[in-house]
Amino acid sequence: MARGKRVWGFDDEARAFLLEATVGIPSLQSLVARAQRRMDLGGMWVVRASLRELDEMYDFGEALMDMTRGRRRLDMIEGMLASLSTSMDGF
After folding, report:
1. Which domain holds residue 33?
2. pTM of the shown model
């Protein structure tokens, strides 16, 4: 993977979910916790992260998909994975 930081953003619902879901995984919880709210982006939470960090979060999201049954939660995780993919690709 190329070096450098990428920007990844998520909304309030995803942030609350991820903070709860990553309890016990300090590296991922730190990634979510260091995001900053950007009012100029509609209140999105934005974090600069390495490709390694984003890849780790993507893998975690895939695991969450396998464990999740609720349609709304699945849709949220699917959106998170899509945004992570876009961030990792540098778009």
Report:
1. 5-89
2. 0.89
